[in-house]
């Protein structure tokens, strides 16, 4: 009888504890949703007037301004572009963290996608006097099924960084077929540069939000410190993991593996999933 009373009491206590935990969980979820909604609203509200400011700066720059005005306008455009990038990145991270990011599955041509990225970054490569190499394994199937927008965003970010932190050097982009089974292909991507490199004690933290190599690096190269955070999160969502190897003064290598279903120009799959 005594044992029964003890058992009932401990059951009651356990139930109470579980209830408390449930309430705390709901509270945390509500707080997180409210924060995410707030961030999203503020960012969208900021974006609209910013687009107007950027648009006007752009128009005025095209109207052959005087040299003194040109400097002010260029500075306005630079700051506007920076803020736009920053807001878009905050929105993107918020979307990922609140599981609202959509992944699309469509048939796409990887070779074409990488060529397009290379062309769009050609100017940055030549500004820094870098050799930009693209090596695509011919064994990779012509068409893959995946999310080309997300892949493009990942590659653009990594290559952009590689070109930014390298001067008079080489940036190589490698896409290799790792394995081909039945309907799936596993691909290995690597972006290698011969740039400034990353110190050993920063190899983990460069993926944290707002983390930049150092104040000096930030002052010299600019940037938001959010690019690699997004890259890491996107690769994870697509089923991979990012690896980083780097030696200060010698260069860096960012690599990851992803699995794709094999596509064809005739297959036009369009599935969407939320993360
Ligand atoms: P940022 O907008 O500052 O470039 P990222 O998140 O893309 O932000 O990168 C974070 C930091 O990691 C950079 O500020 C830089 O210090 C370091 N970093 C990233 N890519 C490279 C690279 N290829 N070579 C050297 N340092 C890099």
From TrEMBL:
<feature type="domain" description="Histidine kinase">
    <location>
        <begin position="41"/>
        <end position="262"/>
    </location>
</feature>
<feature type="coiled-coil region">
    <location>
        <begin position="7"/>
        <end position="34"/>
    </location>
</feature>
<protein>
    <recommendedName>
        <fullName>histidine kinase</fullName>
    </recommendedName>
</protein>
């Amino acid at each position: 009888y005594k044992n029964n009373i003890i058992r009932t009491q401990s059951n009651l206590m356990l139930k109470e504890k579980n209830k408390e935990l449930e309430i705390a969980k709901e509270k945390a979820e509500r707080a997180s949703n409210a924060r995410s909604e707030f961030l999203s609203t503020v960012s969208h509200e900021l974006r609209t007037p910013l687009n107007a400011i950027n648009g006007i700066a752009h128009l005025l720059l095209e109207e052959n301004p005087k040299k003194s005005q040109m400097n002010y306008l260029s500075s306005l455009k630079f700051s506007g572009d920076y803020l736009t990038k920053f807001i878009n990145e905050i929105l993107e991270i918020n979307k990922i963290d609140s599981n609202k990011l959509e992944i699309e599955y469509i048939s796409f041509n990887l070779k074409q996608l990488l060529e397009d990225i290379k062309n769009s970054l050609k100017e940055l490569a030549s500004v820094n006097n870098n050799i930009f190499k693209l090596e695509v394994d011919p064994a990779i199937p012509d068409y893959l099924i995946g999310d080309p927008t997300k892949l493009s965003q990942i590659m653009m970010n990594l290559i952009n960084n590689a070109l930014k932190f390298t001067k008079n050097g080489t940036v190589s982009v490698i896409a290799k077929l790792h394995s081909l089974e039945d309907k799936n292909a596993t691909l290995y991507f690597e972006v290698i540069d011969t740039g400034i490199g990353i110190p050993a004690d920063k190899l983990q933290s460069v993926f944290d939000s707002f983390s930049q190599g150092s104040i000096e690096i930030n002052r010299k190269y600019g940037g938001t410190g959010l690019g690699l955070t997004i890259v890491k999160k996107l690769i994870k969502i697509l089923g991979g993991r990012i690896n980083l190897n780097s030696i200060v003064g010698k260069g860096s290598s960012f690599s990851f593996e992803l699995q794709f279903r094999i596509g064809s120009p005739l297959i036009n799959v369009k599935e969407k999933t939320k993360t």
